[in-house]
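--- STAGE predict ---
source: upstream dedup step, 1 unique chain passed
mode: sequence only
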Amino acid sequence: MNAIPSKLKLLVPPIGNFFTRLPLEAAFKFQDSKRYISSRRFVSPSFNDVRLILNSAQLMAVTTHGTLQLATFDGDVTLYDDGESLEPNSPIIPRLLDLLLKNVKIGIVTAAGYTTADRYYARLHGLLDAIAQSTALTPQQRQNIVIMGGEANYMFEFSPTSPHLLAPVPQERWLTAEMATWSDASIKALLDVAEDALRDCIKTMKLPATLMRKDRAVGIIPSDPNVRIPRESLEETVLVVQKILELSVGGTDRNNKIVPFCAFNGGRDVFVDIGDKSWGVTVCQEWFGGKNGGRPTSIRPEETLHVGDQFLSAGSNDFKARSVATTAWIASPTETVDLLDELADFMTKKLS
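--- STAGE serialize ---
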């Protein structure tokens, strides 16, 4: 017998899982003390008001009402501005070090699909150098950070003796049992279909774009770095490619029984990756869960917080993380700083 859906499920059929209770009243009062929502006479609560209230409620749930074990972060627009790097003077760095000092594990789950450590060091050198130079972190705490690249395709762990402070982790050490069933032939076949669809989009919409094929991804980038492809064209490309792939492989994204994929708008480009951020976060949960003696084999969703900026438009790759973790939706690195301060405050109150 099927379970009777909740009233919320009836009102919003596509709503996902809730891994924790959400203290919405407390969260509203907290945000109201900062944004003075109830003091406004003519402007009703906005989308951003609601988004930040939900963020606060989720932070309260994983701290004061639970125990945060793992925090995962998107890269662009979350830790640093789009296309930029995490520089040594970033205010985010000391806040991430504070999480490590509190024994919270960190996973940086990014769509950037690099196969070598130097490319990730170039984007994250401020944080990696700070971890290496910290006198407060223990050797174990330094190991409590991993980089998950290409959504869920390349893992690097901190390595103080490596030239770029990162060492690649062989796939056989971190692939989940389900991911290990994705054959190279199936991956190639899916990317071939995606490549053909992208070529058709370039031709049909006369996009000023060049195709880029990688071993675990395929996408389009501007032919001229100084030219921006219109957002509407990027969104259309995502939707066209996603639909063609769904019809080709017989399933949507994570539900695909052959090889899950993620078609997303990166702001300046469009890429199709093998897997998506739900798989990347799952890998982090199993990686760190398996290293804690006495703990289950995986950190649970209610003990995990994923922070990102892409939860709304077509091809929003952070959206997928909602199926395996609690989430917080930010709109800029500045908001990430505020969110980490809020998180630290809630964690301190619980400890006291």
